[in-house]
Amino acid sequence: MPGRARTHVPLPEGITDAALRDLVSYSMKRAFNAMQADMLRALAPFDLRLMTFAALSLISENPGLRPSQLADGLAVERGNLVGILDALAARNLIDRIPCPVDGRAQTLHLTEAGVAVLARARQAARAQDSRMVDVLDPDALATLLSALAKIEEHARTRA
Amino acid sequence: MPGRARTHVPLPEGITDAALRDLVSYSMKRAFNAMQADMLRALAPFDLRLMTFAALSLISENPGLRPSQLADGLAVERGNLVGILDALAARNLIDRIPCPVDGRAQTLHLTEAGVAVLARARQAARAQDSRMVDVLDPDALATLLSALAKIEEHARTRA
DNA sequence: TATTGTTATACTCTATAACTATA
DNA sequence: TATAGTTATAGAGTATAACAATA
After folding, report:
1. Of the N and C termini of chain B, which has fewer Cβ atoms inside 10 Å?
2. How many whole angstroms separate alpha carbon A50 and alpha carbon B29?
3. Which residues belong to any copy of the HTH marR-type domain (chains A, B) (predicted)?
4. Count of C-beta atoms within a 10 Å radius of residue B3
């Protein structure tokens, strides 16, 4: 891919990363890291991280959601979700109620406290998100979202 | 941000993530995870990860680079770089040579083995990268790269 | 004093596999 | 047998703080 534009953040004096800049993966990694650090800070007042915030958000939108469905929605292995739910339940932000029709399953619900925390966290997350994409014009933003979705969709892990 | 297009990968039956889809951060996280998993697989034959590959690449482009500069280039804390360099040195892919003009510093160089491994890994990484952005038209790719760079550049952590 | 490399710690995320109880 | 939740383990990434040697 010759002639790709120089879009990267400057490196320390005299250091070049031309070969790396040629990789979209590298740009994605750097942008993701920067985004994550900022979003972490924005969610810190609520003791939430990207993961726990997304979990609360999905449960809020889908009351009665099952852990396995939530794991799919978060793109997390079921096993790795348990600890997250344990922590949220210990903080009394969610309830895990046994599913009446399937003895194996649970249904997830936000508690009142969970609803309250999510409402405030959502404001902070949206504010930070808007701040992040503030520098993009609407067309660029739409293209970015579409490109990210296509990349995820066509990844072999999700095929 | 009303009317933002539905760009996300479908969730399990009946589950919605409208509120999350509204966050660019969430799209970035999902796309990044998918990309990373694929790139990991592509680099696995060379026993490299995104991090170690990028380290070799930067050292290759900047012979004599110092660890602190490399840490900046990789957006990694100096302390967290030590183990990475230890591993690469143990595999005889890099040399850490004391800096002649500064007793505190080191200079990093690829060994012959490092050059050979990087050359092959680079091919695999570029092939995988191309595969990933294959679904994007050139305009979308350029916009994506530009958007990622702007996002990183304007993040508070790098301001 | 400030910087370089280093060590140490702790937490998050990811990957993998196996276990149990239900279906 | 298959699935849901769980447990366990290991490795990678990140954040933070401190330290000795050198500038």
Report:
1. C
2. 9
3. 21-153
4. 4
User: What is the per-residue pLDDT across A44-96, written as a single tens digit (0 to 9) for each?
Assistant: 999 999 999 999 999 999 999 999 999 999 999 999 999 999 999 999 999 99
- B residues 101-130 closer than 8 Å to A (CB): 122, 125-126, 128-130
Confidence grade of residue A14 (pLDDT, cut at 50, 70, 90)? confident
Q: Mean pLDDT of all residues in chain A?
A: 90
DSSP secondary-structure letter at A65?
A: B
Tell me the CATH number of domain A27-157, given options 2.60.40.1230, 2.60.40.10, 1.10.10.10, 3.40.605.10: 1.10.10.10
- Spatial contact of A37 and A28, defined as CB atoms under 8 Å apart: no
Q: How far apart are CA B23 and CA A122, in angstroms?
A: 10
The helix-helix angle for A112-133 and A24-43 (nearest 10°) equals 130
Give the pLDDT score at B18.
87
What's the CA gap between A68 and A102, in Å, rounded?
A: 13
Judge whether B61 and A18 are in contact, CB under 8 Å: yes
Q: Which two tokens stand for residue B1?
A: 């941000």
